[in-house]
Specification:
321 residues, alpha/beta, six-stranded mixed sheet, four-stranded antiparallel sheet, 14 strands, 33% helix, elongated, binds adenosine-5'-diphosphate, binds magnesium ion
Length: 321
């Protein structure tokens, strides 16, 4: 549905995007995750045809955005970082204005009414935009993006500045819209993309640093899982048994929680619970506790954006999740 190939963009001498490529199938919700200044808005502005790139191509449903911008743009509903609202218009007046601007060929009143129902702004339709809360304004931004029923939605940091209740409502709305639309959503918050997306792409410093992440992380079976174990037995030997388990990358000693016992965290490249169990079943040592520590994509994300993790290795790791 969306194919982005080798996008590079300079703002004068500052390279904002460096060879960014990714693609998205129909019906997917892609989370575009990265810290401030990573290049998310620049990418979205290029995908939606608002900004040109220095090299690379963007195809929306087979249509090149540069070759045929009008046709490609008809397929996209865009909610920019700051929704383009006119404060002195009523909600209805503004949506009718956008409807005409987009030259939509549908019965106007019904179309706008059904969008207002969907994003739940029907009760404020006759009010001036300037008098509405940030939550409502964001919904109006969604409404304008939905005018004309585009199959693709591009949402740039759609929950920034909202309160927790509004965030929950907007996320619910995005998940609902995801049933019928292909969506790209950007965020600098991992929790946000984990909450709503099928796929995550991490961008940092204009480059894609991790691709094809799945958000269905449970702490087990993940690429870098962590296990907390307490074993009754001699510390040195327990440590050495744990270190020898296939897939274990490092073992951290947490001390002696009770007499004769030792406590460790075990980092591994995959779920090693069964292997750990078997390793100890062959000895006289007893496992008293073994708990997967919630796997944190946050660790991976933070590691990547602070440059501690080799990005190639991380990309390979996370693609196995
Ligand atoms: P994000 O949306 O991930 O926060 P942006 O795409 O806005 O990142 O910005 C990427 C980089 O490009 C940043 O270094 C930013 O300072 C720079 N940049 C963005 N917009 C402009 C602009 N209009 N002129 C010059 N530099 C810009
Ligand atoms: Mg941005």
């Amino acid at each position: 549905m969306i194919k982005v190939r080798n996008l590079t963009k300079y703002y004068v001498k500052n390279k904002a995007l460096d060879n960014v490529s990714f693609s998205l199938e129909e019906g997917e919700i892609l989370g575009f995750l990265g810290p401030n200044g990573a290049g998310k808005s620049t990418t979205m502005n290029i995908i939606t045809g608002y900004l040109s790139c220095d090299s690379g191509t963007v195809e929306i449903d087979g249509i090149d955005i540069l070759d045929n911008p009008t046709a490609a743009k008809k397929k996209i509903g865009y909610l920019p970082e700051i929704p383009p609202l006119y404060n002195d218009m009523t909600v209805r007046g503004y949506l009718e204005f956008m409807f005409r601007l987009k030259k939509v060929k549908k019965p106007m009143k019904e179309h706008i009414n059904s969008i207002c129902e969907l994003v739940r702004i029907t009760d404020v339709k006759e009010r001036l935009i300037k008098n509405l809360s940030k939550g409502y304004r964001q919904r109006i931004g969604f409404a304008q993006a939905l005018i004309g029923d585009p199959p693709v939605l591009v949402l740039d940091e759609p929950t920034v500045g909202l309160d927790p209740q509004q965030i929950i409502e907007i996320r619910r709305l995005i998940r609902d819209l995801g049933k019928k639309h292909t969506i790209i959503l950007s965020s600098h918050l991992l929790s946000e993309v984990q909450a709503v997306c099928d796929k995550i792409l991490i961008i940092n410093d204009g480059k894609i640093v991790a691709d094809e992440l799945k958000t269905s992380l449970t702490g087990t079976g993940s690429a870098t899982s962590k296990l907390h174990v307490i074993v009754e037995g001699r510390r040195q030997q327990v440590r050495s048994i744990l270190q020898k388990v296939d897939g274990v990358t490092d073992v951290t000693d947490l001390g002696e929680p009770e007499k004769g016992c030792c406590e460790f965290t075990v980092n591994s490249r995959r779920d090693v619970r069964r292997l750990v169990f078997r390793a100890f079943s062959k000895t006289d040592f007893n496992i008293l506790e073994m708990n997967p520590v919630e796997f944190s994509l946050e660790d991976t994300y933070l590691g990547i954006i602070t440059g501690k993790i080799n990005t190639k290795e991380a990309a390979a790791d996370v693609s196995n999740i």
